[in-house]
Structure formats: C-alpha cells, structure tokens
Amino acid sequence: MDKGILLSGGLDSVSLAYWKRPDIALSLDYGQAAAEKEIEVSAIIAKELGMDHYIVRVDCSSLGSGDLVNGSAINGSPSTEWWPYRNQLLVTLACMKGISLGINELMAGSVLSDGFHKDGTIGFYERINELMSYQEGNIKITAPAIHLSSVELIKISGIPASLLHWAHSCHTGSVACGKCRGCLKYQYTLRTLYGDQ
C-alpha cells in the first residue's frame, strides 16, 4: 500500500511533499480559478520528487464562492476566499481516486494558520480521518504539519529555494494577483525566510 498527498502546488503542500516523500501525488481541478497553474506546478514537483502524479477533474465551481471562483463571498463567509466544505470535498475526491491506486494514507498540507477555518483545524482532521477510516477503503487522513507554521514546515522539510519558488499560492488565477490571502501569505513567508532579496 502507498502513501498519497493532496498536492495543490502551494507553499505548504510542496514543502510537505518534499519532507515526507509520498509515493503518489493527487491534484484536483474542482473548478477553482487557479486550477491549471496549480496542476502545472504540482506536475513539476511530482516529477522532481519521483512521485506518480494523478489529476482529478470535477467541476464544482457552481458551489464555490469568493476569490477561488473570482466571485463574491457568500453571506456568512469568514473571509473572501471561503468555499463551503472545501477540504471535506477535496479529501473525498482524492480518496475516491486513491482507492483505485492502492493508497492507505492521504496527507494534507494544512498548517497552523489554516486553523482560521474549521476545516483547517486538528479537530477537522481527526473527524475526517475517523470518517474515511470507517468506510470501505479504510484510508487514513493525516496532516503532518498541522502544528507548524508555514515557515517552520519549510525549514523542517529542507526544501531548496529553487524548488520552493515554483509554488503558486494565488487564489484568483494563474498569474499571482499579489493581493489575495494566498499571495499575501506567500509574500510574508518568503520574506521571513529569505528577506527582501
């Protein structure tokens, strides 16, 4: 049985992939605005790390909201990029594909700051792990970096800057907008690590 990772091409998932070296990378196009760039970056990282790379495409854009679909956030959104039940959706889709690939563990790249949303917390991953482990397929869901900041994860992973700089964290499209929460996190993280180079 193999280990898999949800690989979005962002700073955290790229660093986690480098650190943990799973066998299989799963990238999802679920209708998000940056899907093509995320998949492009993920393919580069997977090839560099010798991981088998699979892409799952299911258009759920009509269910999304905010920055991730270049639309308005729905009422009650805690932030402009909030997509209802997104991580639950991503884990489910990845496991649906992962069963046929023989994975027994799926890693997600959530870090401490993702706890801003309920589906980025330790409690969420404990519950989704219990649910997915209970069902046929018995896939374990882990978030190995959930106690770490992005900076701490990058340092622990040992990922070289040359590979990390491929990461794409923008929520709004294939070209970094520089203003969304993903871009601001990317800028802050790299400034913290490398200064204003």
From TrEMBL:
Matches recorded under Gene3D superfamilies: HUPs (3.40.50.620)
Name of the top EC class for this enzyme: ligase
Keywords on record: ATP-binding, Ligase, Metal-binding, Nucleotide-binding, Queuosine biosynthesis, Zinc
Pfam families: QueC
Presence of keyword Metal-binding: yes
Reactions catalysed, as given in the entry: 7-carboxy-7-carbaguanine + NH4(+) + 2 ATP = 7-cyano-7-carbaguanine + 2 AMP + 2 diphosphate + 2 H(+)
GO biological process: tRNA queuosine(34) biosynthetic process
Pathway: Purine metabolism; 7-cyano-7-deazaguanine biosynthesis
Gene Ontology molecular-function annotations: ATP binding; ligase activity; metal ion binding
Family affiliation: Belongs to the QueC family.
Name of the protein: 7-cyano-7-deazaguanine synthase
Organism encoding this protein: Mucilaginibacter gracilis
